[in-house]
Design a protein that fits this description.
- This protein is of the alpha+beta class.
- It folds into two domains: 2-189 and 260-288, no CATH class; 193-258, no CATH class.
- Helix content is 63%, strand content 9%.
- The chain has helices spanning 2-35, 41-76, 78-83, 89-119, 141-160, 163-185, 240-246, 262-288, and strands spanning 193-198, 212-220, 225-227, 249-257.
- A four-stranded antiparallel β-sheet has the order 1-4-2-3.
- The radius of gyration is 24 Å and the shape is elongated.
- The relative contact order is 0.13.
């Protein structure tokens, strides 16, 4: 069974390894240029493209690796031949999923770590590595998101038994999880550091470079915080200072996650993504008990 599964999946596995190897070589080159202070405008543009590619690569692999894994065999009826041999349905499912997901996960974990190492010295291009769009493109979460996309694709294929429909579901679910974690959940992984300065100064100037600012505004004499969105009407008044005096502001503040929290956030999000992947795969196990014919 293992040999047959390898024969079926070897082209996809070789393709993933080739993509990871090629991107890793480009990343090594870009890091060398950044360390030597020779990261040209063209190279910075390449970095931007690679960031975008690393964000979408897990879902692309999930769509084209996970979604057809079972759906295509069910569509073509080839699963009937496999299940009429001396192989149980459970062994057939686990062997195919383990080989595909395992090889994909290893390759993407390697790529994510190489990307984090390569992007680290690019301080001018990577303003903060914690924000959405940069955080998901490096570190261990790259492998985690690849596992999630694969799990969604494979499970959707078992449920829908249609490759194209499973691909669409994978894309939608991946985007929903990515946006939810990035926009609503990630900033809560740790308590942000607090910075304060006199009202005529900008508190965020005290933040270490590459910090991720999550809140800023003003503080009145009682210590109550007013986020900037609630005080923007002062900008429409002819005398902004008089407006601030009337509001009794005595200081400005900012809250930010510091750059040294990068790996803590990475492993926290990895845990969440893997837990979600386990739930999805668990649902797939339940679905697999139904007749596949």
């Amino acid at each position: 069974m293992i040999w047959v599964t390898w024969r079926q999946q070897r082209l996809q596995i070789f393709a993933v390894v080739g993509i990871v190897a090629a991107l890793s070589l480009v990343l090594v080159y870009l890091r060398s240029q950044a360390v030597n202070g020779a990261l040209s405008d063209t190279n910075q543009l390449i970095v931007s493209y690679i960031l975008l590619l690393l964000v979408v690569l897990p879902v692309l692999l999930g769509m084209f690796f996970g979604a057809p894994l079972f759906a295509r065999e069910i569509e073509q009826g080839t699963h009937v031949f496999a299940l009429t041999q001396s192989v149980s349905r459970t062994r057939w499912l686990i062997t195919k999923a383990a080989m595909a997901c395992g090889s994909l996960a290893v390759a993407m974990f390697v790529l994510g770590v190489v990307a984090a190492w390569a992007f680290e010295p690019m301080k001018s291009t990577m303003q903060t590595r914690l924000e959405t769009g940069q955080f998901e493109a490096q570190g261990v979460v790259v492998g985690g998101y690849a596992i999630l996309a694969f799990a969604v694709g494979a499970t959707a294929g078992l449920v829908l038994r249609n490759t194209l429909a499973a691909m669409v579901v994978t894309l939608i679910m991946y985007g929903a999880v990515l946006l939810t974690l990035g926009q609503s959940v990630r900033e809560n992984y740790a308590e942000p550091s607090y910075f304060e300065a006199p009202v005529n100064q900008v508190a965020s100037q005290a933040e270490p470079g590459r910090s991720w600012q999550v809140d800023y505004g003003f503080v009145d004499a009682t210590g109550k915080q007013f986020p900037l969105l609630s005080t923007r009407y002062c900008a429409a008044e002819p005398n902004v200072r008089a407006c601030f005096d009337r509001m009794n502001f005595v200081a400005s503040y900012s809250k930010a996650h510091l750059p040294n929290q990068f790996w803590r956030f990475q492993f926290t999000e990895l845990g969440l993504v893997l837990a979600l992947s386990a739930l999805v795969l668990g649902a797939g196990v339940g679905v697999s008990r139904r007749p596949l014919a």
